[in-house]
Design brief:
The chain is built from 17 helices and 16 strands. It has helices at residues 3-8, 10-17, 27-41, 49-56, 60-68, 74-89, 153-157, 159-164, 176-189, 201-204, 207-216, 262-268, 270-273, 337-344, 348-360, 371-395, 407-410; strands spanning 95-104, 114-118, 123-136, 142-149, 196-198, 221-224, 229-231, 244-245, 248-249, 260-261, 278-285, 288-303, 306-307, 311-318, 324-329, 425-426. Strands 6, 7, 10, 11, 12, 13, 14, 15 and 16 form a 9-stranded mixed beta sheet that branches. Strands 1, 2, 3, 4 and 5 form a 5-stranded mixed beta sheet that branches. Strands 8-9 form a two-stranded antiparallel sheet.
Length: 432
């Protein structure tokens, strides 16, 4: 974004940031926020503190202190951000997504840095990992709502090292799925309804994460691993509860089918074998329409030895590559399959958020040794991105989201289906 365009949006930016003024007790940090965000909106090649400060004619030390030691309410700022989204962009078919991103770093002083899987480089490397929650609507709006540092176990165990990085004493190592629940809970507490939540198999492989969402009444469709186990037919309970085994109380009759992995259920369970694959046009790509063939059936997870209430198990097979994906949903009976698939394949907006914020706003350009500086940087970057999303929505001529099929594409079937009597249906024909 060049200086001329930033100048033309100055009044709009000032009005937008005015909603955050009460996060600061003094005018100086309010102005520093505007300086920081204008730097992120500029065409600077590197958007860390020093180049932003020098471009604005401010001492770099001033912006460093603004992030690290200045007194302002970042929790209230997060609340304002999420309230802005709730007030202006909430949608009954919105999809929230959980995912993580990595930030490659040198040295060993950045909070949470260590050699670990670095997705941005596709290998194990020295990096910081942060977990995020996004929000996207069928109108094309997308934004990151929240983000938190993943603190590795060796960092958590070394409290002197944590103290040096200003990591709060109450902050300890938590699995990423537990951080994800915390992010979801904060958004809901701030008044933002999350009609649907989706996630990849890294989170879906944790049954405690699925149960946590169930207990919260959060609707979800998430990818699970091949090792996810359960039943397609609800097992009969054991009425005589006095029988005990060495591993605990047995709740189910011995003649019940054993709990099975989703791969075997899809291959051998009558609930799936008796179905035919149904083709769905998920999106368009550079190589043409992306079509997935789908089967789905009721599914019962195992929780403390007992079956849960009925979920959905969805098996999806890519028609072009043969890739298999498995999803679990806790939607009630009668939910249209297109609604479940719409959510299941709705993770791409958070990936676009990461890409846009890293390439345009300097999400991973932070050079700090202070936990407060890091999380404040993540939060301010989300505010900057939200402003751009609001501008985009105002200027948008078409309600069709980026990357989604337009009206002409909706009527076009996959030409490779030939004489298939049941051509691929588009997920977007339903108007979700």
């Amino acid at each position: 974004m060049d200086a001329a365009l930033i100048g033309s949006l100055q009044n709009e930016l000032d009005a937008f940031l005015g909603e955050y003024d009460d996060c600061f007790g003094r005018p100086e940090p309010r102005q520093h926020l505007r300086t920081y965000i204008k730097g992120q909106l500029s065409d600077l090649p590197r958007k860390s503190i020093e180049p932003i400060a020098l471009e604005a004619g401010v001492a770099p030390r001033t912006l460093q202190e603004f992030l690290s030691t200045a007194r302002w309410d970042q929790q209230l700022m997060r609340q304002r951000l999420q309230q802005q989204v709730a007030r202006r962009h909430s949608h009954p078919h919105a999809i929230a997504a959980i995912d993580e991103t990595s930030h490659a770093k040198k040295g060993d002083m950045t909070p949470g840095v260590k050699p670990q899987w670095c997705g941005s480089r596709g290998k194990k490397d020295n990096c910081v990992v942060t977990v995020h929650l996004s929000y996207a609507t069928p109108t094309g709006f997308r934004a990151l709502l929240d983000g938190e540092l993943f603190l590795p176990e060796d960092w958590s165990a070394d409290r002197l090292r944590c103290e040096g990085a200003k990591i709060p004493g109450e902050m300890v190592h938590r699995p990423k799925w537990q951080i994800a629940l915390e992010l979801r809970d904060r958004a809901v507490a701030n008044g933002l309804p999350l009609p649907w939540l989706t996630f990849d198999e890294h989170y879906g492989m944790a049954n405690d994460f699925l149960f946590g969402l169930d207990d919260r009444g959060q609707s979800y469709v998430g990818e699970v691993s091949r090792n996810c186990h359960g039943w397609c037919k609800k097992p009969a309970p054991l009425h005589k509860r006095h029988h005990e085994q060495t591993r605990g109380v047995r709740y189910l009759k011995e003649k019940n089918p054993p709990v099975s992995g989703v791969v075997n259920l899809v291959r051998y369970s009558p609930a799936f074998v008796r179905q035919s694959w149904k083709a769905w046009h998920v999106k368009d790509s550079d190589k043409g329409p992306v079509v997935w063939e789908v089967k789905m059936a009721p599914f019962y997870l195992r929780r403390q030895g007992r079956p849960t209430y009925p979920h959905w198990l969805i098996a999806a097979r890519n028609r072009r590559t043969g890739e298999m994906k498995y999803f679990v949903a806790n939607a009630p009976p009668g939910t249209p399959p297109e609604a479940l698939l719409y959510v299941a394949f709705g993770r791409y907006p958070i990936e676009r958020c990461f890409e846009d914020q890293k390439t345009e706003l300097g999400l991973d350009h932070f050079e700090v040794r202070n936990y407060h500086s890091m999380v404040r940087h993540l939060l301010i970057t989300s505010i900057t991105s939200l402003f751009l999303a609001c501008v985009q929505q105002r200027l948008k001529k078409s309600p069709v989201a980026d990357g989604l099929p337009g009206e002409e594409r909706r009527r076009r079937d996959d030409p490779r289906l030939g004489d298939d009597p049941q051509p691929a249906r588009s997920l977007f024909q339903t108007g979700l």
